Automatic annotation (TrEMBL):
Family: Belongs to the EMP24/GP25L family.
Primary location group: endoplasmic reticulum
Subcellular location field: Endoplasmic reticulum membrane; Membrane
Protein name: TMD11 protein
PANTHER family noted in UniProt: TRANSMEMBRANE EMP24 DOMAIN-CONTAINING PROTEIN
Pfam families assigned to the protein according to its UniProt record, in alphabetical order: EMP24_GP25L (PF01105)
Membrane topology annotation: Single-pass type I membrane protein
Keyword Membrane tagged: yes
Encoding gene per record: Tmed11
Membrane-spanning parts: 164-183
InterPro entries: Emp24-like (IPR015720), GOLD_dom (IPR009038)
C-alpha cells in the first residue's frame, strides 16, 4: 500500500488468543528524479504499534526500512497493527510518497530449511511431524475462536429477535389502549352534546 511520509496506516487483524503473529515489511521511497520508487529507503525507519482489542499497547517499537516484527496475542479479537515512518520532516515539507510491502502471517511457524535439508532422514521426518502438530494446534485454536464468535453472534441475534417481539407486543397494546381511549372519549363527547 502507499502512504504519506508522516501518515500512519493501520490494519485490523482478527487473531485468536495465544497465537504468534509475524509481520515482514519493506519501505520504498518515491524518487522525483527517476519518477519511480527506490529499491530501499535508507535512513527511514518505521514505528510499529500493535494494540489489543482492549486498547492496550502490545508492541511499540522503531524498526529500520526493512524488518520483521512479531507478537503473541493473549486475547482473541481484532488487533490493530499501525505503521508510521520516523521521518523528521515537518508535515508541510513531508510530501514524499512511500510504498510499504507488508506480509502478515498469523499462527504460522516456518520450517527451517537448513534442518529440512539435513542428511539424517529421521530428524527431517521428526521435524516435519512436529511442524504438522503445531499447525494442527493452530487450526484447532482458530476453530475454537470461530465457534466462540459464532456463539456470541447467535446470542446477540436471539436477544435482538426477542426484543423485537416484545417491542411489537408493547406497540400493539399501546395502539389498542389509545383506540379504546379515543372511542370512550368520542362516546362521552357525543353523550355530553346529546347527539346520541
Amino acid at each position: 500500500f502507499h502512504s504519506g511520509e508522516r501518515e500512519e496506516k493501520c490494519i485490523i487483524e482478527d487473531v485468536p488468543s495465544d497465537t504468534l503473529v509475524i509481520g515482514n515489511y519493506k519501505v520504498q521511497r518515491w524518487d522525483i528524479h527517476k519518477q519511480d520508487f527506490l529499491e530501499s529507503a535508507p535512513g527511514l525507519g518505521m514505528f510499529v504499534t500493535v494494540t489489543t482489542p482492549t486498547a492496550e499497547v502490545l508492541l511499540s517499537k522503531l524498526y529500520g526500512p526493512q524488518g520483521t516484527f512479531s507478537f503473541t496475542s493473549y486475547l482473541s479479537g481484532e488487533h490493530i497493527i499501525c505503521l508510521q515512518s520516523n521521518s523528521t520532516r515537518f508535515v508541510a515539507f513531508a510530501g514524499s510518497k512511500l510504498r510499504i510491502h507488508l506480509d502478515i502471517r498469523v499462527g504460522e511457524h516456518f520450517l527451517d530449511e537448513s534442518v529440512v535439508q539435513a542428511k539424517d532422514k529421521v530428524n527431517e521426518v521428526n521435524f516435519r511431524l512436529e511442524h504438522l502438530i503445531e499447525q494442527i494446534h493452530h487450526i484447532s485454536k482458530e476453530q475454537n475462536y470461530e465457534r466462540e464468535r459464532e456463539e456470541k453472534f447467535r446470542k446477540t441475534s436471539e436477544e435482538t429477535n426477542s426484543n423485537i417481539l416484545w417491542w411489537a407486543i408493547v406497540q400493539t397494546l399501546i395502539l389498542i389502549s389509545i383506540g379504546i381511549w379515543q372511542i370512550k372519549s368520542l362516546r362521552d363527547f357525543f353523550i355530553s352534546k346529546k347527539l346520541v
